[in-house]
## 1
Amino acid sequence: MAPRKTIKPNPKAKSRPCEPCKGTGEVSRPVRVGRKQRVAGQQTGICLGCLGSGEIPAAD
């Protein structure tokens, strides 16, 4: 039987922070209210680019 090969991590594949959320995993959106659609405040939500992890997913 052949010896098992050990898998070494790839040093080139470093995770980068997500651009829209800058690595936090949350993005803020303005909340508009009323007939004239005035901005009333900010609301935070999960980043759809990284799904809250804060890192860009690896391209497989």
## 2
Amino acid sequence: MKVSGPHHDAAGGVHRLPVPHGVSGALLACAFDVVGPDPDAVMVEFAVDTVVCLVESDEVDRRFPTYAGWLVAAGPDRAVHSPAPDHGVVADGVAAAVAADVVVRLEAGMTVLLHCGGGYGRTGVVAVQALVALGRGFEDSLVAVRAARPACGPQSDAQDEQLRRLVGGAGGTGGTGGPGIIDGTGGTGGTGGTGGTRIHGDTAGAVL
């Protein structure tokens, strides 16, 4: 459901996605135009603990050049950069690892804000995986995400096919591990060094 005021309407607003009962964290979604100009202000406004950026580095540099530096300076608890191509996908292991990291944070009671360019396709791919891992059925998760943020969910055949490969037959297993450096196999490690949490794999794009 929409949780932002009219000052964010031009950028599509900020929406809360429905995590299952018993999960203490909150999952939010928005477009880059909402968070890009002043991420710290948005984090304060919506009590966000971690921003997950799914935008590729060249798009970040083109649209909000100072945001790249913010992702690094914010540190691994506050910022995750997991770039994915618009309407495209990263390696399955990378996609699964990003969602698993979100699940860990939600189960720890954190508020996580997901964004890509428009806050729909790449954001929806991560959100649906997270809801399934938290115990919702796959089709129910797709419907719930789209109901909470209209049009949010897979926006291409590649995104839809990846979701169905990863969680289409699953009822959810919950998260494991802790936030940290995530490799292309889907495993989680320790907390990253001085920059934002690093997500990397064979198609994950630039690492900040």
## 3
Amino acid sequence: MALAHLRLRAGLAASGWLALGATALPGGSPLRWIPVLAFVALAPGLALLHPQPSGLRPGARLEALALAAPVSLSLATLAATSLFLVRGFSTTAFLVSLAVFVTVVAALPGVPLPAATRGAVERETRRTRPRTRPLTGTRPLTGTRRAGGWARAGRRPGDGR
């Protein structure tokens, strides 16, 4: 596992406890509400979506970031609602429940994202394109074989179209 990947997981796990510690600061202070807001709005979703074992491709990183806030806010709503239903809601109980969730989930592999598993997110380059050979004895539907390659009619063998 890469060092950067471990730092991300450790940072996510520590963010909840940092937000909980920030509640000890005087009320109304930006040093109190900024860490709490950032933790509640992003950390649970990032903990669920980002820690992929092999890392994320650029398109999947964008997808994880775009889904992190709605997933985080949904989990925060579930936590707050359940605490209200058992008549045990307090800021401390709410943040402790989310911090424990994020700490446990950051140690687990992330939820597989569609963009992380399919290869269509990034533009194919000559190096990343799979090498396929045309079937023997077939002729192209469009274009003709020239000395320099296939004619510019839009189809090449192995294109998959």
## 4
Amino acid sequence: MKSITKKLITLLLALTLVAAMPAAAFAVGETVPVSIEADRYDAAAWEVLELVNAEREKAGLHPLKLDSKLQEAAMVRAAESTVYFSHTRPDGTGCWTAGPESMAGENLAVGQSNPQQVVNAWMNSPAHRANILHKDYNSIGIGCINYNGIWFWSQAFARTSGDGNIPEDKTAVQQDVNLLRGLLELKWLGDTEFNLAENEAVAHQIHIGAVNPGWEYMITEMDPQLFTILSTDESVMKTAPDGTLIPGSVGTATITASLKADDSIILAQKVQVSRKLKAEDVKLSYSSCTYNGKAKKPTVTIEGLTEDDYVVSYKNNVKVGTATVTITGVGDVSGTVTRTFKINYDRPDQVSLKSPTTGKTHYVKARWYDEDCDGYQIRYATNSSFKNSKSIYVKDGDQLTRTIKNLKKGKRYYVKVRAYNNYEDTKVFGKWSKWKSVVCK
């Protein structure tokens, strides 16, 4: 006899299965190994035993005695239920093959968070209640496993007397379960979206799960070494023999995981590699340039990306000052980055001044070496600090002398010169030359 009951308990779907006699098993075939790491709670099993015997006492029945072999079988069955919630074992054999030959009945449950809840669930189900209150049963094993925060329970019954041996209270256990290939339904458990800027050259472990055929809400992770992992585009997502994925470039690729033991069992998952632009990744071909009245557009380069992955716009990039470059991602590239560059006037170099000369008509002649510019400014004064100085402009860049007239005889005059270039209505000056002086005749 077998029944299935579904009940919502603490946001978990609680299922119960009962087997009062050997049930028909699937034909045993090729299997796939699934390793379960769970927490085992023998103390909770003892609590279930006390509650079960209390129910039997109410019914006027003798108590059940714990049996160490049935107990181990029940723990195995609880662990196997994480992979296949059924009275048929994951390898296709009947549930009774997990225990001694005397095993005659089984109750299963999942989702109840404590012994009282699971016993209540069983007692509220006629078929499970019949197992618990079976007058011919004398011994019991009770399995209690917590896997990924979900509780799995089992009871194994027998007509023989239990040995009463108390099993060692174990905590962490590893249970190797063989699952029929025909029951294997694969599900992708890992990430499907990757950010290249954050995860570049970082290996990501692939995560593949097996859906519990008896309870679809439960998925057990499988060893990636059981699969051959391939990518439709290794430039986008690289695959490694150890089952890791490494983002390579933006785009999409399909990852296929085929079972090595049976390549007809395949899981295909589309993954997307995107990239969020970061300011430090953006390079400009220059950070400053010289004003010439034309728009300036430094070339933008981003390692790992092409010009098709982003658009570039420029602002305030004609006149002298700070220009702005805005880079916006396209498609699989997201984000916006702003960079700046300077537009500067072309300032003439510093002028090299020759020693000034003087003559009897009270003049001083300033002389300097040729400089590539539009003109010169001459400043002269009777003191080296150039207080109360006067200026003369030479508007011809090819002129290399200027006579300063109507000066006072016997006075020492200090002279310095600087070059300038004209930009529209603006004069852009170079540095002043070192001053030189002469006494006017």
